[in-house]
Amino acid sequence: MNRYCFLLQVRPERLEEYKERHSPVWPDMLAALRDSGWTNYSLFARPDGLLVGYVEAEDLTAAQEAMARTEVNARWQAGMSEFFVGLDGRAPDEGFLLLDEVFNLEDQLGAIG
Question: Which of 25, 56, 60, 66 gives 40 a disulfide partner, CB atoms 3.0 to 4.6 angstroms apart?
Answer without folding.
Answer: 56
